[in-house]
Each structure stands twice: as structure tokens, then as C-alpha cells.
Specification:
mainly beta; seven-stranded mixed beta barrel; six-stranded antiparallel beta sheet
Length: 289
């Protein structure tokens, strides 16, 4: 039994292992997966001296609690939340030493949705297709964490950052998503395209790692029937029969038969990962590059 390990004391609502995902396997039906907020994941890795592709923990809404078997350096970032070590408050957004056997508590997010926990050395679960990421759609990678799970850790790669705290983007009060129209915008009426880019939407509570669902005006079809299944990309805005746009996130299916009216710029997707249910959403059209 190695002492380079974390014991999950409280798994929380949904805590998964994530890294930069497994790109390049869409032709096999495998989504990219990976951290929904890759900027936050990269930051906490940098704070503890990890390379950017080291695996971290992604928590959802109410955090988690972990107990290391040996002294480790950790950093918590992404959605702001209270952090405690052995019952004493600790910094969020900075390297923190957790002695062996002490309890690291990552509390509920005070804003946003997903917090990230990096440990020096990274989470060293067995990789699948080159990634340690949990993929909720295909089932690849480690299962979502449960109480009592033991996570092996790798050897530290470098010293932690010498900072008191790192600035992090605040979760959005309004989610602005820049979109390129198409490839199937011709399946919708001109009014539907206008509604998408001018009307108000909100983030639905039914959102998850597969897609950000919206509430708002349904988009009217110009054509009946359905498309044959075709490839789907990260950020695709698919419109199911109820007419409410769904923005595909990291665990999205690689094919689908509902028409895609637009595609969101990749740079805008980390903010989507932190948008709480009820957050206003605006789709802003931009020209094709």
C-alpha cells in the first residue's frame, strides 16, 4: 500500500478525475472529455508545480473532503469556495500544505459551479486512451468518486509556485457566447435565427458535463423531419425537438441527428462551465474566420 495517495472522505454531489482529455478519438465515438474549465485546471496545476496535463479533481457545487496518507501540497481554484485543513481555514487559489492524515475540506462553491483540486504529483489513476479523465457519456476513465475511494498520486514534478494567491476569473453574472452560425442554420426560419441572437435565454438546471441546456424561446424549424446522424464538435449548439438550444460541452456525443444552428467559440466555453442555473445567456453572432 503506497503512502502517496488520497482517501476520499466525502465525495460530494459529483467529483471526477479530469485532465486535458483524450482528443483525436471522435472517429471511434469517444468524446474529448477533460476539465470543463481548463483554465482553472491549468492554474491549480501550475500552483502546485505540476505539468499542465496532470490529472486534477473537478468538484460540482458542494465540494469534497480528502485525507492524504502523506504530506502533500494542494491548490484549490475555479469556483470560489471555503477551504480548510484540519478544521482551520486555508487559502483558495494558492498552494497549501496538508500534513499526512489531516482532512482537506473543499466547501460548497460561493459562486459558480465547479472547483478544481490539484495535488503535487497529480492524480495517478490508470490512463485510458492516453487520458485519466472521467467521461460520463462513454464511461471511459475512472468512475465518479465515492466515499472511501483511494486515489494514487504521482511524484511531485517541481516546486510549488511562490505566490500568496492567484487571480481567477469570476463566474459570469451573464454568459455571453460568441457563435458562428451554421452548419444547419438553414433548417430554421429567419425568425428562429433572429431569436437565437437577440432573445434572452437562461441556463437550465438540467445542464451537465454533456451539455449546457437553456430555457427560453423555442426555435422554429423551416424543414420537417430529422437529419441523418452527423459529426458533432465541442461547442455545437444543437436544437432538439423542444426548440431550446443545447451547447455541447466536454462529454458531448460525437454524432447526433438534431440540427446544429451554430457553434460557440472554444474560448467562451470555460465560462459556460461556471454558469449557475438561472444565469442569463446571450448568443452573439460573429463572422466565420
Amino acid at each position: 500500500m503506497t503512502d502517496r495517495a488520497l482517501v476520499v472522505v466525502r465525495a460530494g454531489a459529483l467529483t471526477t478525475v479530469q485532465d486535458r482529455g483524450r482528443p483525436g478519438y471522435a472517429h471511434l465515438g469517444v468524446p474529448r472529455s477533460g476539465a470543463l474549465d481548463p483554465i482553472a485546471a491549468a492554474l491549480v496545476n501550475r500552483l502546485v508545480g505540476n505539468p499542465p496535463d496532470a490529472a486534477v479533481l473537478e468538484t460540482t457545487l458542494n465540494g469534497c473532503a480528502l485525507r492524504p496518507r502523506s504530506t502533500v501540497t494542494v491548490a484549490v481554484g475555479g469556483a470560489p469556495c471555503p477551504v480548510a485543513v484540519g478544521g482551520r481555514p486555508a487559502a483558495c487559489g494558492a498552494p497549501v500544505v496538508v500534513p499526512a492524515g489531516e482532512l482537506l475540506e473543499v466547501g460548497a462553491a460561493t459562486a459558480g459551479v465547479r472547483s478544481y483540486v490539484a495535488v503535487a504529483g497529480g492524480v495517478a489513476v490508470e490512463p485510458v486512451l492516453g487520458s485519466r479523465a472521467t467521461d460520463l457519456l462513454s464511461g471511459l476513465g475512472p468512475a465518479p468518486l465515492t466515499d472511501g475511494t483511494v486515489l494514487p498520486l504521482g511524484a511531485p514534478a517541481g516546486p510549488p509556485a511562490r505566490v500568496d494567491g492567484a487571480p481567477q476569473p469570476r463566474p459570469p453574472a451573464e454568459l455571453v457566447l460568441r457563435v458562428t452560425l451554421g452548419p444547419r442554420d438553414d433548417w430554421f426560419t429567419a425568425r428562429a435565427v433572429r431569436d437565437l441572437t437577440t432573445r434572452a435565454y437562461r441556463v437550465s438546471a438540467a445542464s451537465n458535463r454533456i451539455g449546457l441546456r437553456t430555457e427560453g424561446p423555442g426555435l422554429e424549424r423551416a424543414r420537417p423531419g430529422e437529419l441523418p446522424s452527423e459529426g458533432m464538435v465541442l461547442g455545437a449548439v444543437q436544437v432538439p425537438p423542444d426548440g431550446r438550444p443545447v451547447v455541447f460541452l466536454a462529454d458531448h456525443p460525437t454524432t447526433g441527428g438534431y440540427p446544429v444552428i451554430a457553434v460557440v467559440r472554444t474560448a467562451d466555453l470555460p465560462a459556460a462551465a461556471q454558469a449557475l442555473p438561472g444565469t442569463p445567456v446571450r448568443f452573439v453572432p460573429v463572422r466565420r474566420r
